[in-house]
Amino acid sequence: MLWWPAPAPAADSATAPGREPVKRSRVVMAQEPDATVAFSAQPEKIPPIIQRGLTQLTGTPTLDEAWRSLVSTQDTVGIKVFSAPGPTSGTRPAVVEAVVKGLLAAGHPPKQIVVWDKHLNDLRQAGFFALAERYGVRVAGAAEAGYDDKTFYETALLGQLVWGDLEFGQKGEGIGRKSYVSKLVTQQMTKIINVTPLLNHNFAGVSGNLWGLALGSVDNTIRFENDAERLATAVPEIIALPALGDRVVLNIVDALICQYQGEEKTLLHYSGALNQLWFSTDPVALDVLSIQELDRQRKAANARAVKTNLELYQNASLLVIGVSDPRQIDVTRLP
To answer: Phi and psi for 149 in degrees, rounded to 5?
Structure first.
């Protein structure tokens, strides 16, 4: 059973500097009954879902105008995916392909579109290299791009540094207390579009917009990954870094398939086809609605109940990243 407490009164100490509290958020859910067949996305069915959802969200008459309201042709747009689970349970290439085609049709230069995740190998195995080659866009890994020594998240918690982390092999006081943001984010893109699967996560509740972007963008993450309480603090604070969270202009939940158990493993017997895409500028609202849907799917399948720690999303609200109380989220459902 999921329960959200009544929102706490706004307090100066709980509001991120320079940000206005978010009172309500809006989510648009668009559906196409035949968008998947036997758990396989049908590429020709995806663009109409994006057109309906995005024009509804932005209040624009055409898809081209919807994209132009979010990004300019001067921007370098990073499409953040979650590729480690592969093309069936992770972000589906057919959804990203439709986003890329929409940006190109709106006049965006292909070399200023980057499909990215933490590791290039995951992107390759999930099929994103082939997609990038078809459309002339770029594909990049945050880890392979290296980390920016001037942009970081710092906490007293010491990390277990591994090869690839910026401070790996260094010695001295304070080594291991910083998670550095990838140069791919700080130096190579100006706007970010999140495209995340509706996929469970044992500690964060959902492999969603907040968790995926935060841990996909920084190094020295082993210290957070397998602890719900540490994630609840670290993930919102990483997203609140201006170099990261301020670049996000759109979040899309790839809800074509809802996998309620298994995380990075493809377990289709723990999955249900929803044939939906969800759109919002609020990543927190989408994540809490995702957790609700995962819970519904588990109950419908008589699967083992999961107790989700919602502190991560409440903390994100306190940092004015978005709305964590479902009662403050306005949902528009489109056929």
So the answer is: -75, -5
